[in-house]
């Protein structure tokens, strides 16, 4: 009776793939190559920066413990590179990537796909971050537009001062007020100086002749006529904090600051005066003792007028 020679069974890859020769099994080749170099599996794992259990699973042929066949082939190639071993026989013994199927034969991945599918997938992947950012970007754009709108619509509290030596200008004519002898005519700043004929209207009128009266009333009226020698041309009285600028005819800035509530300022010289009030509703203006209505020369609550 002749004795029959049987090959010794191989663990790992040899048992999983019986068609592979024992000399090409990664269980023996990788392990023997590593042991031949005297390198421990822990040191090899540290060199490749992979867990020890993955190297042990690769050497033992337990590919189900690895993430996927692609990872197994890449790890085997890296091991061969470190051990300076030919990776050809080892990679040939690993499971082929083409044999992996994810479904039924009629639904296999090797079924031809339409040419537009790849581009559609890439377009969707590229547009996904844009769709996630669309809502925050829309909110930011809305806030930016709202801020710009408020910046242009709200009145500016501190307008730029007029350049020195600039000629006074008029924008509108106040014809009805010119007929009133007791109230001086006020005009907005932007326009050339009015004709000299308007000057008599703005100049203070002489006091009318007092009627004949007893000596006692005449004596009593004397204190009222005394200030006429130096009339009070312009008085500014602040009810609330407001920015005010007054420029004289010589171009000198007579006043440029914020008036506090209850504060009054009187200016009598360097006529005509260019006046800018940042808050027209917070300042009362009197010209030669007569109150002035700032609504006619105000825009966005900023009054600009000229006092002669």
TrEMBL record:
<dbReference type="InterPro" id="IPR010982">
    <property type="entry name" value="Lambda_DNA-bd_dom_sf"/>
</dbReference>
<dbReference type="Pfam" id="PF13413">
    <property type="entry name" value="HTH_25"/>
</dbReference>
<feature type="compositionally biased region" description="Pro residues">
    <location>
        <begin position="187"/>
        <end position="199"/>
    </location>
</feature>
<dbReference type="Pfam" id="PF13464">
    <property type="entry name" value="RodZ_C"/>
</dbReference>
<feature type="transmembrane region" description="Helical">
    <location>
        <begin position="133"/>
        <end position="154"/>
    </location>
</feature>
<dbReference type="InterPro" id="IPR050400">
    <property type="entry name" value="Bact_Cytoskel_RodZ"/>
</dbReference>
<dbReference type="InterPro" id="IPR025194">
    <property type="entry name" value="RodZ-like_C"/>
</dbReference>
<keyword id="KW-1133">Transmembrane helix</keyword>
<dbReference type="InterPro" id="IPR001387">
    <property type="entry name" value="Cro/C1-type_HTH"/>
</dbReference>
<protein>
    <submittedName>
        <fullName>Uncharacterized protein conserved in bacteria</fullName>
    </submittedName>
</protein>
<feature type="region of interest" description="Disordered">
    <location>
        <begin position="161"/>
        <end position="199"/>
    </location>
</feature>
<feature type="compositionally biased region" description="Low complexity">
    <location>
        <begin position="161"/>
        <end position="186"/>
    </location>
</feature>
<feature type="domain" description="Cytoskeleton protein RodZ-like C-terminal">
    <location>
        <begin position="235"/>
        <end position="305"/>
    </location>
</feature>
<keyword id="KW-0812">Transmembrane</keyword>
<dbReference type="GO" id="GO:0003677">
    <property type="term" value="F:DNA binding"/>
</dbReference>
<keyword id="KW-0472">Membrane</keyword>
């Amino acid at each position: 009776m002749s004795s029959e020679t049987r090959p010794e069974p191989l663990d790992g890859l040899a048992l999983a793939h019986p068609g592979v020769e024992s000399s090409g099994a990664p269980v023996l080749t990788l392990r023997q190559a590593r042991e031949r170099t005297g390198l421990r599996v822990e040191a090899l794992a540290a060199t490749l920066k992979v867990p020890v259990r993955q190297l042990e699973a690769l050497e033992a042929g337990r590919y189900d413990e690895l993430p996927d066949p692609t990872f197994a082939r890449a790890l085997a190639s890296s091991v061969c590179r470190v051990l300076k071993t030919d990776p050809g026989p080892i990679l040939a013994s690993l499971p082929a990537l083409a044999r992996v199927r994810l479904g039924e034969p009629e639904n296999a991945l090797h079924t031809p796909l339409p040419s537009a599918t790849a581009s559609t997938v890439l377009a969707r992947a590229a547009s996904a971050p844009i769709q996630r950012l669309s809502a925050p970007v829309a909110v930011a754009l809305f806030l930016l537009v709202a801020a710009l709108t408020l910046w242009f619509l709200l009145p500016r509290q501190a307008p730029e001062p007029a350049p020195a030596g600039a000629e006074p200008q008029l924008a509108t004519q106040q014809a009805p007020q010119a007929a009133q002898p007791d109230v001086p005519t006020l005009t907005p700043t932007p326009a050339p100086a009015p004709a000299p004929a308007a000057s008599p209207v703005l100049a203070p009128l002489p006091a009318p002749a007092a009627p004949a009266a007893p000596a006692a009333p005449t004596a009593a009226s004397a204190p009222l006529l005394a200030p006429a020698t130096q009339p009070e041309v312009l008085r500014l009285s602040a009810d609330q904090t407001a920015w005010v600028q007054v420029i004289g005819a010589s171009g000198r800035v007579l006043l440029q600051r914020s008036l506090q509530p209850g504060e009054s300022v009187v200016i009598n010289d360097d006529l005509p005066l260019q006046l800018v009030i940042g808050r027209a509703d917070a300042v009362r203006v009197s010209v030669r003792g007569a109150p002035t209505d700032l609504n006619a020369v105000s825009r966005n609550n900023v009054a600009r007028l000229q006092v002669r």
